[in-house]
């Protein structure tokens, strides 16, 4: 047995579990990202997301996060839906249509890690899916799964950007993959389309100006200066991905857990404005939309529909 065999086994098992891309990179210090992250934080582009400033050293070196780490296994799981919400409806980001991805992916990662231990022997490591100080896009980029576009999303040349990124950081020496070229070229569609000017320059997104930040992360009142700029987005935003030419290659996912509740595509703008706690619980019981809560969703709906009185 050698690291070539181990690498092939892990990639094959990942594919069996439904991950449509798997790449490997050496667990090392992210030298290129260090000054970028530091500068981003100094400019307060994380807004009220205080957790982004925590564990700075762990974000840049996985060997601190997972002692003895030798390899980072990056995985992509598609969530692009077959059926989307009507254009005239109030909208949520596509990633939140179905079951919260944290649960779906964590289960798959645990199975993958168990399979590695059964095949290879005891391998130490941890599973990560947007739940710890790991720079997902940086590792995915290093392992050749795509490039980080001008909208700061990872873009795969064959599948666009509607996917979740997760990792296994393990103490097993594997064959690393190399990065690929940036194919954004002169395109600025994402920058031109962003209604809140959150993409302050190519490859730099001010998180505190993003519609996703205002509708999910921000806990207080939404600033009046962005009133009228959200379109019909009440949870998250897909604008910079929807306009990206590379997403013409997006294909329907095959993960049943990501299918929306049957009532979600049927909700029109009036239904959203009249949504009750009971309907919220029924449709979004397992969804990431629960992160903002019923009260937060009501706030967002009122903000974009100019309803001044609280919803019942």
TrEMBL record:
<feature type="binding site">
    <location>
        <position position="190"/>
    </location>
    <ligand>
        <name>[4Fe-4S] cluster 1</name>
    </ligand>
</feature>
<feature type="binding site">
    <location>
        <position position="244"/>
    </location>
    <ligand>
        <name>[4Fe-4S] cluster 1</name>
    </ligand>
</feature>
<feature type="binding site">
    <location>
        <position position="165"/>
    </location>
    <ligand>
        <name>cob(II)alamin</name>
    </ligand>
</feature>
<dbReference type="InterPro" id="IPR017900">
    <property type="entry name" value="4Fe4S_Fe_S_CS"/>
</dbReference>
<feature type="binding site">
    <location>
        <begin position="237"/>
        <end position="238"/>
    </location>
    <ligand>
        <name>cob(II)alamin</name>
    </ligand>
</feature>
<feature type="domain" description="4Fe-4S ferredoxin-type">
    <location>
        <begin position="172"/>
        <end position="204"/>
    </location>
</feature>
<keyword id="KW-0411">Iron-sulfur</keyword>
<dbReference type="Pfam" id="PF13484">
    <property type="entry name" value="Fer4_16"/>
</dbReference>
<feature type="binding site">
    <location>
        <position position="240"/>
    </location>
    <ligand>
        <name>[4Fe-4S] cluster 2</name>
    </ligand>
</feature>
<feature type="binding site">
    <location>
        <position position="212"/>
    </location>
    <ligand>
        <name>cob(II)alamin</name>
    </ligand>
</feature>
<dbReference type="GO" id="GO:0052693">
    <property type="term" value="F:epoxyqueuosine reductase activity"/>
</dbReference>
<keyword id="KW-0846">Cobalamin</keyword>
<keyword id="KW-0004">4Fe-4S</keyword>
<dbReference type="InterPro" id="IPR004453">
    <property type="entry name" value="QueG"/>
</dbReference>
<feature type="active site" description="Proton donor">
    <location>
        <position position="130"/>
    </location>
</feature>
<comment type="similarity">
    <text>Belongs to the QueG family.</text>
</comment>
<keyword id="KW-0560">Oxidoreductase</keyword>
<keyword id="KW-0479">Metal-binding</keyword>
<keyword id="KW-0819">tRNA processing</keyword>
<feature type="binding site">
    <location>
        <position position="154"/>
    </location>
    <ligand>
        <name>cob(II)alamin</name>
    </ligand>
</feature>
<protein>
    <recommendedName>
        <fullName>Epoxyqueuosine reductase</fullName>
        <ecNumber>1.17.99.6</ecNumber>
    </recommendedName>
</protein>
<comment type="function">
    <text>Catalyzes the conversion of epoxyqueuosine (oQ) to queuosine (Q), which is a hypermodified base found in the wobble positions of tRNA(Asp), tRNA(Asn), tRNA(His) and tRNA(Tyr).</text>
</comment>
<comment type="pathway">
    <text>tRNA modification; tRNA-queuosine biosynthesis.</text>
</comment>
<feature type="binding site">
    <location>
        <position position="130"/>
    </location>
    <ligand>
        <name>cob(II)alamin</name>
    </ligand>
</feature>
<feature type="binding site">
    <location>
        <position position="210"/>
    </location>
    <ligand>
        <name>[4Fe-4S] cluster 2</name>
    </ligand>
</feature>
<feature type="binding site">
    <location>
        <position position="219"/>
    </location>
    <ligand>
        <name>tRNA</name>
    </ligand>
</feature>
<keyword id="KW-0408">Iron</keyword>
<dbReference type="InterPro" id="IPR013542">
    <property type="entry name" value="QueG_DUF1730"/>
</dbReference>
<feature type="binding site">
    <location>
        <position position="151"/>
    </location>
    <ligand>
        <name>cob(II)alamin</name>
    </ligand>
</feature>
<feature type="binding site">
    <location>
        <position position="194"/>
    </location>
    <ligand>
        <name>[4Fe-4S] cluster 2</name>
    </ligand>
</feature>
<dbReference type="Pfam" id="PF08331">
    <property type="entry name" value="QueG_DUF1730"/>
</dbReference>
<feature type="binding site">
    <location>
        <position position="187"/>
    </location>
    <ligand>
        <name>[4Fe-4S] cluster 1</name>
    </ligand>
</feature>
<feature type="binding site">
    <location>
        <position position="237"/>
    </location>
    <ligand>
        <name>[4Fe-4S] cluster 2</name>
    </ligand>
</feature>
<dbReference type="InterPro" id="IPR017896">
    <property type="entry name" value="4Fe4S_Fe-S-bd"/>
</dbReference>
<feature type="binding site">
    <location>
        <position position="59"/>
    </location>
    <ligand>
        <name>cob(II)alamin</name>
    </ligand>
</feature>
<feature type="binding site">
    <location>
        <position position="184"/>
    </location>
    <ligand>
        <name>[4Fe-4S] cluster 1</name>
    </ligand>
</feature>
<comment type="subunit">
    <text>Monomer.</text>
</comment>
<keyword id="KW-0170">Cobalt</keyword>
<keyword id="KW-0671">Queuosine biosynthesis</keyword>
<keyword id="KW-0963">Cytoplasm</keyword>
